[in-house]
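Quick note —
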Amino acid sequence: MTVRMRHTRSHTKNRRSHHALAKPALSKDESGTFHLRHRAGAGGTYRGRKV
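Predicted structure written out below.
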């Protein structure tokens, strides 16, 4: 049986440092409202066209 690697608090925190949630990327359309990227706005427009 092999000897397992050490499991220290610092190694755990280093691994978990990449688990933070990213803020959503928002875009502003022609009417000035914000919406999620690559999605239609509240008015039903996408890239200046009615969808």
